[in-house]
Design goal:
Blueprint lengths: L15 E8 L3 H12 L4 E4 L13 E3 H9 L3 H4 L4 E2 L2 E6 L4 E6 L11 E3 L2 H13 L4 E4 L3 E7 L4 E6 L4 E11 L6 H5 L4 E17 L8 E5 L5 E5 L4 E7 L6 H4 L2 H7 L9 E16 L3 E2 L2 E3 L5 E2 L7 H20 L10 H24 L4 H17 L32 E3 L4 E3 H5 L4 E4 L4 H6 L2 H7 L3 E6 L9 E5 L3 H9 L3 E4 L5 E5 L2 H15 L13
Parallel strand pairs: 1-2, 1-11, 2-8, 5-13, 11-18, 22-23, 23-24
Antiparallel strand pairs: 3-7, 4-7, 5-6, 9-10, 10-11, 12-15, 12-16, 13-14, 14-15, 16-19, 17-18, 20-21, 20-24, 22-25, 25-26
Length: about 550
């Protein structure tokens, strides 16, 4: 498919037509557009600003996000500009270590669990991906001012620098941030958790190497502070304010340098930005109205204490992209899009609520309550120096197998495999899409029932992870280099596992008949022979 330019049209003329309009060109909009473009769909991105934002907002991301970036071909290019961070410290005003979170160098998704970044570097890489795809067209200085829905599509009314235009799309994704026009236009309200804190964010670019904490939350009741790396060349200090009005006084560069004097001087770094943010916790009541769907900050906003804001938006984009792909290719019915919110909202709420809990813990202003917190956390640390890792919930209630198969809805693992010509992480060796990982002993059950032909016909990659690689006409028989997949199948006590394109487990099966049944059920779901459920029983 080829890209489509947006040109001025007379109101009575037929609008320009694309598959999907993405409103907003921040990281979430970029990823959504790139994933849809990668699948071959015509995508038009409309961004009201004249260029990339080019200022840091998000500061970090996890291994699941890195897996998404790898699928888009930018992970390895970004690595030199990232800092892999192994620990995250929480200290009190006296400097006592209250909590030390640790992050694996190789996480569940096959990448380091925590990367620190300078967001303009990420946006530049994603912008290059989008602009390399003929299916994706990006229009800056184009403001969406209206949406008109029918059963068959959406007409998007756009104001450019010189004219007003119309674009016809089968679907619209609102990735236009916390002040989303799209959300307002479709009349969706926000559920407010009531967490609202004003902070001053100060970003620095290093002139020379400096010894600064890379990941520190300072729970000082006099001045709660966050110090965090933005990759090798940049750093961020954030200070909680008593009120938004204090920002005008505290933003003065001399006052900022005084605040950071124990860590940085003007000889060490340049102060490149001082901004105020109010950390909020808001979740949209509805993430879909007809053919318009919300993603990222347009659908939810959370405090930054877990570093999961942008990561959650990327999960939205992955979830939407593969389901829209099935719909746009005519495989699945439109109802599959109803599983988007039912899967993502509980996950987002769990992450948001944990972030609020940590936020309240760090920002206690009452000295007596802060001292009580310190005593509790120091005693807990004395009992066990290793805190329990933060684990996000599995997905439920959506596009999954019937019943309660082991691992259903959990984030899949990713290991290194070797197919005889390449040794790399699985996604890079076999590509994206649905994966059916199956024990070699049960591959015959798929061959005998001609299920391999049908799976290949809808783009499901059948993968046999074993001790060696071999040639097979319709399956990738790969060496499981580190035994990651053998261990995972043993942990789930299953013979096969289906992983969705967004990396979450569709379902598992044990025994040849069950493996064939799992494949048959997957084919039915992909072909739309399903009805979205909200009862927890899946599809």
């Amino acid at each position: 498919m080829t890209g489509t330019d947006v040109t001025a049209v007379d109101p009575v003329q037929k609008p320009t037509a694309v598959d999907v309009v993405v409103v907003g060109y921040g990281p979430v909009g970029m990823v959504a557009a790139a994933l849809l473009g990668q699948a071959g769909h015509r995508v038009l991105v409309l961004e009201r600003y004249p260029g990339l934002y080019n200022l840091p907002r998000a500061a970090s991301f996890d291994d699941e996000t890195m897996r998404t970036l790898a699928r888009l071909g930018v992970a390895e290019k970004l690595l030199p500009k990232l800092r892999v961070q192994p620990t995250y410290e929480w200290r009190n005003g006296q400097g006592d270590l209250l909590i030390e979170q640790t992050f694996a160098e190789n996480g569940r998704s096959g990448w380091a669990e925590w990367h620190m970044m300078y967001q303009p570097d990420l946006e530049e890489a994603l912008d290059n991906v989008c602009r390399s795809m003929p299916e994706v067209q990006v229009r800056h200085s184009h403001t969406v001012v209206g949406l008109e829905q029918t059963e068959d599509g959406v007409t998007v009314i756009v104001e450019g620098s010189e004219n007003r235009e119309k674009v016809a799309a089968r679907y619209v994704l609102g990735c236009d941030g916390g002040n989303s026009f799209v959300r307002t236009a479709i009349g969706v309200n926000l559920d407010d958790y009531g967490f609202s804190e004003p902070w001053m964010v100060c970003d620095f670019r290093f002139r020379r190497p400096a010894k600064v904490p890379c990941a520190l939350q300072l729970g000082d009741p006099l001045s709660p502070t966050s110090i965090i790396s933005l990759g090798p060349a940049h750093h961020r200090f954030s200070f909680m304010l008593d009120s938004v009005e204090d920002f005008e006084t505290e933003r003065d560069p001399q006052r900022v340098w005084k605040r950071v004097a124990s860590h940085l001087t003007p000889d060490d770094a340049d102060l490149i930005r001082v901004a105020t943010y109010t950390f909020r916790s808001l979740i949209a009541d509805e993430w879909r109205r007809g053919r318009v769907l919300l993603a990222g900050d347009a659908a939810h906003q959370m405090p930054p204490f877990l570093g999961q804001g942008m990561c959650s938006g990327f999960r939205d984009a992955q979830n939407l992209a593969f389901k829209l792909d099935l719909v746009l290719r005519g495989f699945a019915s439109d109802d599959i899009l109803d599983t988007y919110q039912s899967e993502r909202e509980p996950h987002v709420r769990a992450v948001t609520e944990k972030g609020i809990e940590l936020g309240h813990l760090q920002t206690l202003r009452d000295p007596e309550r802060a001292a009580e917190r310190d005593r509790t956390l120091l005693a807990r640390r004395a009992e066990s120096a290793v805190p329990e890792p933060t684990r996000f919930p599995d997905l439920v209630d959506g596009l999954f197998t019937r019943g309660t198969s082991a691992g259903r809805g959990q984030l899949s693992v990713q290991g290194v495999v070797d197919d005889g010509t390449r040794r790399d992480r699985l996604d890079q060796v076999v590509g994206g899409g649905f994966h059916l990982l199956v024990d070699e002993k049960h591959l015959a059950a798929l061959e005998n029932r001609r299920l391999l032909d049908h799976l290949a016909g809808v783009g499901v990659r059948v993968i046999v992870p074993g001790e060696r690689h071999a040639q097979h006409a319709q399956a990738a028989v790969v060496q499981d280099v580190d035994g990651i997949y053998r261990a995972w199948l043993a942990e789930l006590d299953c013979s096969a596992v289906v992983v969705r394109p967004d990396f979450y487990v569709y379902g598992t099966a044990s025994g040849s008949d069950a493996v064939a049944g799992l494949a048959t059920e997957l084919l039915g779901a992909i072909h739309g022979n399903m009805t979205a459920q909200r009862t927890g029983t899946g599809v």
